Amino acid sequence: MPELPEVETTRRGIRPALVGHPVTGVVVRNARLRLPVPNDLETHMSGHALRDVRRRAKYLLLDFDSGSLIVHLGMSGSLRVVSRSAPVGSHDHVDVLFGCQVLRLRDPRRFGLLTWQDGDPLDHPLLAHLGPEPLEPGFGGAWLHQVTRGLRIPIKQALMDSKRVVGVGNIYASESLFRARVHPLTPAGRIGLVRYRRLADAIKETLTDAIRAGGSTLRDYVGGDGRAGYFQQHYFVYGRDGESCRVCAALIDRRVVAQRATFWCPRCQRR
DNA sequence: CCACGCTCCTGCGCGC
DNA sequence: TGCGCGCAGGAGCGTG
Predict the structure, then answer these.
(1) Is residue A77 assigned to a domain?
(2) Do the beta carbons of residue A227 and residue A165 sit within 8 Å?
(3) Distance from residue A185 (CA) to nucleotide C6 (C1'), in Å?
């Protein structure tokens, strides 16, 4: 499940291989993703050189002088640079050809999307109203405190709403709350500034650590076989219900909160 | 604005 | 060993 660190690692993996190279073709084998893949991609991109690969939330933005290709990996998507002769798998839905190199989107569950935006991709309706990036100035404890006044939903659910902060998915929500020692079911509006500062710091640390861990797998994004790439991570609580807390040895709890599996240590994390 | 539940899709793990 | 069921998950969107 690509969360922000995986998307950032993908960006860093594909960027150096492709920037400056012109698109020579587009192959769409299956256009049925979360949004239909436009059928005029080739018209927009062919002959235009890739200028940059940026990230906003979990969206990858491939900038050309004619506009931007916007890609979201959903929960099973991957984007890799492979050679033209690489075998095509059954879930390899889109290829963007850059001469002998191919940028290949694989997405078994098809929750991802790939679309085109003329002009500034940040103006796209899916991107225009997103909250702040967790690793950039503007996001911090004061912001979280401000945007949670009056909220009664659990803090874990509030963190996963992209209008408050982007890029905190199901895994890192639980992990960040553990690091901040905040119980995931605490009503968001009842958490004070001091604990929100701790939580914002924990989010930054959790994501930064995961991106660092992803750095060691960067080679998997260029020339890899498309199976490797999702890096192993050492989780404190995610997926560890019934196991011992790595800090205090209490047994990790699990509960479904807002349709999402949620994990916490009942001793380390207080409401 | 807020809260909640539905939806897309397929691989995988589990139970029998 | 093989089969079939149900869960997992990002995030937009509709409803009350």
Answers:
(1) yes
(2) no
(3) 26
Both A242 and A161 in one domain: the answer is yes
pTM of the model: 0.94
Q: Residues A198-215, buried b or exposed e (16+ Cβ, 10 A)? A: bbbebbbebbebbbeebe
User: Which positions in strand B are less than 7 Å from the protein's CB atoms?
Assistant: 2-11
Are A86 and A95 in contact by the 8 Å Cβ rule? The answer is no
Catalytic machinery residues of A: 2-3, 58, 260
* CATH number of A18's domain: 3.20.190.10
Query: Residue A112, CA: closest nucleotide via C1'?
Result: C10
A31 and A37 in contact (C-beta within 8 Å)?
yes
Same domain for A98 and A20? yes
Query: Residue A177 in contact with residue A184, Cβ under 8 Å?
Result: yes
Rounded CA–C1' distance between A47 and C8, in angstroms: 41
Nucleotide nearest to A239 (CA to C1'): C8
Q: Are residues A183 and A242 in the same domain?
A: yes
Residues A147 and A115 in one domain: no
Could you read off the pLDDT of A140-181 as tens digits, one per residue? 999 999 999 999 899 999 999 999 999 999 999 999 999 999
Judged by C1' against the alpha carbon of A126, the nearest nucleotide is C12
* Range(s) of the domain holding residue A249: 141-264
Strand B atom within 7 Å of A260 CB? no
Task: Map residue A100 onto helix, strand or coil.
Answer: coil
The pLDDT of residue A231 is above 60: no
Nucleotides of C under 7 A from a protein CB: 8-13
